[in-house]
């Protein structure tokens, strides 16, 4: 029994006439009569009464047609669901990220992706870069946003692209002596009690601070450790000390906070988006399309990372005439 047998039976029930049903189906009447007869033999029951007044479903036919309609509807739904899944309109995306990525660019990306793919289930996990890298390699995440390019076992199987560059910024209370200044120097920072992000969670931050302040700096070793940029800002506003974090944190509106540049400028590790190179998930592809659309400067780099084979072929292509 095939789907066409179900469609033939439903058309015959609707038109109550072999000729009209055949015309609606776009086939000749004899083949339709034969297909219905074959269907009845397969079912083992007469499905239609042939009368002078027309062709009408029997009790067995009515029961069969009810199921046939549902079966065809399910088949149509199956096709639709498959097509939507292939376009990345349904499914699941597991994203690991560091807190500062929620300042920029993740809010715009997530909002746009949610509007364009409302039926994709987003599973969001805040975690340190080292943890998100391990989870990505283990197949527990689909995409991760962290500081610096992934390292360690399995990192060679990941594709990574920079989605943000940042430098160190200081934040103080508006009652602090540095409030109102456009910048503070590294020498001035060494004289202050500092509030910094956890170097255990994000070693790259610790390396950057040590390089800036000096590995043996008392300010660095005696700093208050905060979990994320929101805590850094809150503690600074409370007068605990001078908070140090990415310039992205200036996007956080907070009464009583004053932000100033650190001079000389101190670049922080890049914000990097990573995913498994061999992942061909339509949902991941849709998410990367959203990243491209929302972060135009990332598009070329992302495409370049995704097409290494094409790039190598271009490099090997012989010059005409040789």
UniProtKB/TrEMBL annotation:
<dbReference type="InterPro" id="IPR036388">
    <property type="entry name" value="WH-like_DNA-bd_sf"/>
</dbReference>
<dbReference type="GO" id="GO:0003700">
    <property type="term" value="F:DNA-binding transcription factor activity"/>
</dbReference>
<dbReference type="GO" id="GO:0003677">
    <property type="term" value="F:DNA binding"/>
</dbReference>
<protein>
    <submittedName>
        <fullName>LysR family transcriptional regulator</fullName>
    </submittedName>
</protein>
<dbReference type="InterPro" id="IPR005119">
    <property type="entry name" value="LysR_subst-bd"/>
</dbReference>
<comment type="similarity">
    <text>Belongs to the LysR transcriptional regulatory family.</text>
</comment>
<dbReference type="Pfam" id="PF03466">
    <property type="entry name" value="LysR_substrate"/>
</dbReference>
<dbReference type="GO" id="GO:0032993">
    <property type="term" value="C:protein-DNA complex"/>
</dbReference>
<keyword id="KW-0238">DNA-binding</keyword>
<keyword id="KW-0805">Transcription regulation</keyword>
<dbReference type="InterPro" id="IPR000847">
    <property type="entry name" value="LysR_HTH_N"/>
</dbReference>
<keyword id="KW-0804">Transcription</keyword>
<dbReference type="Pfam" id="PF00126">
    <property type="entry name" value="HTH_1"/>
</dbReference>
<feature type="domain" description="HTH lysR-type">
    <location>
        <begin position="1"/>
        <end position="58"/>
    </location>
</feature>
<dbReference type="InterPro" id="IPR036390">
    <property type="entry name" value="WH_DNA-bd_sf"/>
</dbReference>
